[in-house]
Amino acid sequence: MTTTATSADPHARNANIEARRRAMALIARARLDELARPIAKGWPAHGARDLKPVESGLVMLRGRVGGDGQPFNLGEATVTRAVVELPTGERGFAHILGRDGERARLAAIADALWQRQDARAAVEATILAPVGQRLAADEAKARAETAATRVDFFTLVRGEDDA
Amino acid sequence: MTALAFVDPVFESQAVFRCVMEAMARPGTIVSCGEALAPPAPLAPAGAAALLTLADFETPLWIAPSFPEAVGDYLTFHTGAPRAAAPDRAAFALVDLAADGLTLARFAQGDPEYPDRSTTVVAQAAALGQGERFSLAGPGIRGEAALAFAPSPADFVDQWAANRAGFPLGVDLVLTAGARLAALPRATAIAREAR
Q: Using a CB-CB distance cutoff of 8 angstroms, which residues of chain B are in contact with residue A2?
């Protein structure tokens, strides 16, 4: 385990973890071109090397009925993992759904770059923000499509009113 | 910079597993493994290969304090194995015979229902095949076999007799030097070879 500079303040530390989680979640859902283009443009000489070979494997997905039922094993999903290290020492990790090794590797590089103080703002602007916007748009579209099929039932006439 | 482990984890770890199994099945046999690895010093390639192959997130690993933190970082990063708080809690232990000596009784001995819950000690020697010679007998050995390693603890034969007295409990020992490896399972009887 690497000993990273830990902040004495636990709140600041939790905030850091939360920020990294948010970044990694967005990176993991980025498409190949959403990672490849900004990285090739912004950091053509990132010099990242694989610490572990990119590997595909299975993870068990757990589900709950209605969000509060008993957890059960829903099925397995293919995930691909990449671990890279920048010449400056930051380690980037990525787990993505599917078998696209190149995308996993780029996602790990993006995660490593995000940890670099001098690159974080650029990663936020060129990778995370566009992905976030696309995901929000996708979700809004799905909501709109679902909303269009919604049927509201209401009672026009109750039988006993005629009596 | 973090040192790399297996380039092809599936096939390389299978090959190392076969080697370790061969060494365990025929005590006294010296096998070669881990030649391609470059673990952080002073961890020897054979010991690194064995631990990278055998240890995982379910096997607490205890590393003797003589090893620098870089060795622990390397093994935990690549295997995901948690670090055991004490040697008697470890599934695997790494010790250096020259720097730490060897005290078999301090490791987990297993319990009667689950004798497999004992520690497998990976002990790094300076040399295998030379040094003090011990004669071996027991399962996997036709007649008698011999194994030499250096440095060997002065009371090794007595310690091993005590380890074997608790059978089926007891620790298993994997000896490494460079990219060579030999194993002494708990069933093996060891005697100092007459000179």
A: 73, 77
Q: Do A2 and B1 touch (CB under 8 A)?
A: no
In a domain, A159, yes or no: no
Statement: residue A8 has pLDDT above 90? no
Within chain B, strands assigned E span: 31-32, 61-63, 92-96, 109-111, 114-118, 120-124, 127-137, 145-150, 172-177, 180-184, 189-192
Whether A69 is in a domain gets the answer yes
Q: Which residues contact B17 (CB under 8 A, 6 or more apart)?
A: B53, B54
ipTM above 0.95, yes or no: no
Check CB contact under 8 Å for B7 and A51: no
CATH architecture of B9-192: 3-Layer(aba) Sandwich (3.40)
The answer to whether residue A142 sits within a structural domain is yes
Closest CA to B184 of B151, B148, B153: B148
Contact check, Cβ <8 Å, B73/A55 = no
pLDDT band at A3 (very low <50, low <70, confident <90, very high): very low
A·B CB contacts under 8 A: 20
Task: Determine the distance in angstroms separating the CA of A9 from the nearest CA of chain B, rounded to an integer.
Answer: 25
Nearest neighbour of A85 by CB, restricted to B2, B76, B78: B2
Which of B1, B9, B77 faces A53 most closely, judged by CB atoms? Answer: B9
> Residue A12's pLDDT is what?
81
